[in-house]
Amino acid sequence: MYLTPEQEAMLKGEYGWSTAKAMEIIVKVGESLGAENLVKIVHAHISGVSFSNIGEHGTRFIRDFYEKGGRARVYTTINPGCVDYSGLQSIIDNSLINAQKDIDNALVKMGFNPVFTCIPYWYRPPSPGEHLAWGESSAVIFANTFYGGYTNREGGPIALAAAITGYTYNAGLHLSENRRATVLVTTAPDIDRQVIGAVGLWIGDNIREITVIPFAKHLTFPELKILLASMAASGSHAMSVVPGLTPRGTYIEEIEEKIVVEKNDIDKYIGDEYPRGSLVLGYVGCPHTTLMELMEVARLLERYGSPRKGRLLLTIPVEYTERYRLLINRLKSKGVEIAAGTCPVVSRLRRKYDVVVTNSGKAAFYLRKIHGLKVRITGLREVIESVYA
Amino acid sequence: MKPVVDGDCEGEVVLVDQYMSFLGEVDPVRGIVKTEKEEISVEGKILVFKGSRGSTVGSYVIYAMKQYGRSPLCMLVKEVEPILIAGCVIAEIPLLVVEEYDDFAGTLKNKNHRYVRYTRGSGILYAW
User: Which of A67, A114, A186, B91 ranks highest by number of CB atoms within 10 Å?
Assistant: First the structure.
């Protein structure tokens, strides 16, 4: 691989241990993917920061980089950790706060922005063609598909290494010729947009190639976020193409195969009906809610009093608690539980629920697998109704 | 076959013929892969699977398996992506791409082959 004199010096240790180690990781991964050189990035997003997911060894790995001098060389944001920073809820177990603090302190002192959200594009929307090194699979696919940014699905350690060096390997989706969509996916007319998360899980599970998904043009921004996130959870999709939405010039469309998603394909992803009287955890916010979703939830809650069949949990970026305080207070007054800077996928729950009802395919995928919970996918309105009606 | 993270690879095979998300489908503390049907121990084995999917946290789960002493000895896959490679790089677990994966997995199943051997740099994978 060709390295510039600066990159060579980094690798040799002239910038300290952390930079050298970070460069070594990037070069090794790059070489194995056939990269000929490195590419300068403008934004790194660090995933793998939740103590409940990475444990003591992951914590040690990150702290080593901080203690041995690693510092951000580019604008860098941080994914959610395993504790709630708002104090506005009672669903998520905050007992790991000290362990999480060790990780957070190292990240913040390295100069990374403590946004603790999986929607880093809310802070800095990428421009078409910009090179990024993002972890967080849902953010990666959103950056490539909606914004036309260029990023691979970087594993957590690569995103960290890229933040410290300012570079990543020039392979995969950093090269225009690899941004080639070959499978056209359409949905049967009787598939409801409420279960778009289940459609995403089916696509992730059954298709390997980069897809063209014209039906997604009719989705709202939050629905698109949910669809793409679920494709990236059950599969390894890093981008998709929505004609008319994905910035032109950031992809090549050469259809070789057409696939129709049928209604009975997605049944198993939606999950079973649950009996009346079940204790329900309604969940919205995977990936983290946008302002539009918060407003929509508040609007839907207007006709209801307090929760009747369980609890409703929303997860949001930390900054919303200040920025949208009036809206948050309104939601709180309806008994909504609001967790900031975390989510149930990367944390532990304080108690068991009979069923989780959510609009998120990604949440369904991981809550079933990590926490062994029963999950039912449905639309936003139905999630609210499952708890309040 | 093509070495991605090169290294010796010899031992008993365990075939998990699917893509998997190391976050959620692997328990690093116990060294177990959780499929829809069963739990499979991969500790000290040669893990054969299609490749990674899902969470970008997967790299750290691979690293944790190694640190807990519960990792597979090496991994043989159909395709690689950065999440998997990064995990194997930092955990120092050999990772090999088997280009004719489907034939290879079929052979393991049909002929009931249970062991493989690959020597670093040799380019040849033996199964018996």
Answer: B91
User: Given an 8 Å threshold on Cβ–Cβ distance, is A157 in contact with B34?
Assistant: no
Q: Tell me the chain A residues in contact with residue B29 when contact means C-beta distances shorter than 8 Å.
A: 55
Quick one: tokens of B93? 């677990």
- Taking Cα atoms as reference points, which of A278, A274, A223, A284 lies closest to residue A89? A284
Q: Which residue has the tokens 């049928």?
A: A262
Q: End-to-end CA distance of chain A: give it in Å, rounded.
A: 61
Q: What is the pLDDT of residue A110?
A: 98
Averaged pLDDT for residues A156-166: 97
* Residues of B classed as catalytic: 55
Q: Which of A21, A47, A150, A170 to mutate to test the interface with B (most CBs of B within 10 A)?
A: A47
Chain A and chain B share a number of CB contacts under 8 A equal to: 125
pLDDT tens figures, A166-193: 999 999 999 999 999 999 999 999 999 9
CATH number of the domain encompassing residue B42: 3.50.30.10
pLDDT, tens digit, 9 for 90 and up, residues A179-232: 999 999 999 999 999 999 999 999 999 999 999 999 999 999 999 999 999 999
DSSP class per residue in A216-281: GGGS-HHHHHHHHHHHHHHS----EE-TTTSPTTS-EEEEEEEEEE-HHHHHHHH-----TT--EE
Say if the Cβ atoms of A156 and B60 lie within 8 Å.
Answer: yes
Q: How many domains does chain B have?
A: 1
| Of A299, A287, A298, A307, residue with least CA distance to A325 | A298
Put simply, the answer to whether B63 touches A57 (Cβ < 8 Å) is yes
The ipTM value here is: 0.91
| Whether the Cβ atoms of residue B5 and residue B88 lie closer than 8 Å to each other | yes
- Which of chain A's residues have a Cβ under 8 Å away from the Cβ of B81? 152-153, 236, 238
Q: pLDDT of B9-45, one tens digit each?
A: 999 999 999 999 999 999 999 999 999 899 999 999 9
User: CA B108, CA A204: separation in Å to the nearest integer?
Assistant: 27
> How close, in Å, is residue B44 to chain A by CA atoms?
19
Domain ranges, residue B22: 2-127
- Indicate if the pLDDT at residue B112 is higher than 90: no
Measured CA distances, A88 to A39, A389, B34 (Å)? 42, 23, 34
A47/B86 CB distance under 8 A: no
Contact A154 B61 (CB under 8 A): no
Quick check: A54 contacting B, CB < 8 Å?
Answer: yes
Average pLDDT over residues A39-68: 97
